[in-house]
């Protein structure tokens, strides 16, 4: 195995193996969710990983009430805006609980305002919704959004409070927020639950996959990953033959864009499945060490598992499971048929020389070194020359070499 092949296998295997372990360790394909409220921990940076986290929780627990336990300094405006859109578009029943001594700042405060009510414990603070960089257009947009959310909550002087929160980055204590109608001051989570007449039956935290996305959401990490993905694709283009770099590059680019909250999660799942299909096709039509086949199966399985994890449990009925099983079985059968057909066509046929060499026959005439004779070998008559001396008619002979349609034979004693 040459060095380039070794490097290719090592790079591709390590990259996709780590990705597979992280994703598969976090996939939740449980059954129908229980009834009741869900306590969602938001003690995280607001980024692409948090978007994936909220999307998963909201999808899995459809129709449930959510209590966001917020304790965060904030994060990125794009990610927070996307979470706010999820809450508003799906009309999610959610309540914000900022625990004693906790904080909901910047993007975390922005998300908190999207819920129906905000509850704050003693020593908690909320506010500082000032975008960075503070460009005039961005500031005006965020101020309008905050004002709209405050109006939805029924807060008086919504426009003035929105200006204080966004333009002046004002932060309110629990008592201050309570006085202006922004929040309700309470002592504990139990008091929150009594107020809204709910019971917490399930608690959710970010999975390993979502924590990984949070790391990738860091601008430096995502931009370097984007650059590396472009370089890998260029290397694939200018390298003779398929090396696997293009697939790795495409996945890195999609991961970078998704971690920046620029692509929906469905695109990430689709890219994983398509990449797996491409690698399986390469393995089928160019059989090698099996590396591409194994990685292809892993990527396709990861993409399908992630799609399944974000599918509402109510939508996964028995007919759906039966259809999925049938399609997977048919796909596996097609892959096997294609692999067998390619393997058959690649079986190396023996040449005439390989078939005839060392084959034993007999001389039908005298065989001389300089004059042709006739031998019967492999069920046919052949023109033959002796490699040493004269071979009498009827003698057993062995083919020594083949030159076109001429055989050179020796006598077997």
How does this model look, in words?
- Helix 2 links the parallel strand 1 and strand 2.
- This protein folds into four domains: 29-208, 2-enoyl-CoA Hydratase, Chain A, domain 1 (Alpha-Beta Complex), CATH 3.90.226.10; 218-263; 271-347; 352-411, Nucleic acid-binding proteins (OB fold (Dihydrolipoamide Acetyltransferase, E2P), Beta Barrel), CATH 2.40.50.140.
- The radius of gyration is 35 Å and the shape is rod-shaped.
- The strands form three sheets. It has a six-stranded parallel β-sheet with strand order 8-5-3-2-1-9.
- With 413 residues, it is an alpha/beta fold.
- It is built from 15 helices and 14 strands.
Structure at a glance:
With 413 residues, this protein is α/β, with parallel strands linked by helices. It contains 15 helices and 14 strands.
Properties at a glance:
413 residues; alpha/beta; 2-enoyl-CoA Hydratase, Chain A, domain 1; five-stranded mixed beta barrel; rod-shaped
Q: What secondary-structure arrangement, pairings included, does this model have?
A:
Blueprint: H1 3-24, E1 37-42, H2 48-60, E2 66-70, H3 77-89, E3 94-98, E4 103-105, H4 107-112, E5 117-120, E6 125-127, H5 136-153, H6 158-166, E7 171-173, H7 174-179, E8 184-185, H8 189-196, E9 200-204, H9 208-216, H10 219-238, H11 245-259, H12 265-285, H13 291-309, H14 318-345, H15 352-356, E10 360-363, E11 373-377, E12 380-386, E13 396-403, E14 406-411
Helix pairs in contact: 1-13, 2-3, 2-9, 5-6, 10-11, 11-12, 12-13, 12-14
């Amino acid at each position: 195995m040459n060095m380039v092949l070794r490097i290719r296998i090592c790079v591709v295997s390590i990259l996709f193996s780590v990705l597979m372990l992280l994703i598969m360790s976090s996939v939740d394909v449980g059954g129908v969710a229980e009834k009741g409220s869900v306590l969602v921990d938001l003690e995280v940076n607001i980024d692409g990983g948090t978007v994936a986290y909220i999307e998963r929780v909201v999808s899995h627990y459809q129709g449930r009430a959510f209590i966001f336990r917020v304790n965060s300094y904030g994060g990125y405006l794009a990610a927070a805006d996307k979470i706010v859109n999820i809450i508003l578009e799906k009309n999610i029943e959610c309540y914000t609980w900022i625990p004693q001594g906790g904080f909901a700042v910047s993007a975390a405060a922005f998300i908190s305002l999207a819920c129906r009510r905000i509850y704050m414990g003693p020593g908690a603070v909320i506010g500082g919704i000032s975008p960075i960089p503070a460009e005039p257009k961005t500031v005006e947009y965020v101020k309008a959004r905050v004002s709209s959310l405050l109006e939805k909550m029924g807060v008086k002087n919504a426009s003035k409070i929105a200006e204080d929160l966004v333009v002046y980055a004002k932060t309110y204590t629990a008592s201050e927020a309570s006085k202006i109608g922004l929040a309700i001051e309470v002592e504990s989570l139990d008091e929150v639950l009594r107020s809204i007449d709910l019971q917490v039956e399930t608690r959710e935290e970010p999975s390993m996959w979502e924590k990984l996305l949070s790391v990738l959401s860091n601008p430096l990490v995502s931009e370097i990953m984007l650059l590396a993905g472009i370089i890998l694709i260029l290397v694939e283009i200018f390298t003779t033959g398929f090396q696997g770099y293009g697939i790795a590059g495409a996945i890195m680019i999609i991961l970078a864009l998704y971690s920046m909250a620029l692509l929906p999660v469905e695109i990430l799942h689709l890219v994983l499945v398509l990449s797996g299909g491409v690698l399986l096709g390469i393995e089928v039509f160019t059989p090698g060490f099996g590396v591409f086949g194994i990685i292809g199966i892993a990527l396709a399985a990861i993409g399908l598992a992630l799609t399944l994890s974000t599918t509402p449990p109510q939508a996964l009925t028995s007919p759906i499971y039966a259809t999925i099983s049938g399609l997977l079985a048919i796909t596996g059968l097609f892959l096997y048929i294609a692999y067998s057909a390619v393997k058959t066509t690649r079986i190396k046929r023996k040449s005439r020389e390989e078939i005839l060499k060392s084959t034993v026959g007999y001389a039908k005439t005298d065989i001389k070194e300089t004059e042709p004779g006739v031998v019967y070998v492999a069920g046919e008559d052949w023109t033959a020359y002796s490699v040493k001396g004269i071979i009498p008619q009827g003698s057993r002979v062995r083919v020594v070499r083949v030159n076109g349609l001429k055989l050179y034979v020796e006598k077997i004693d």
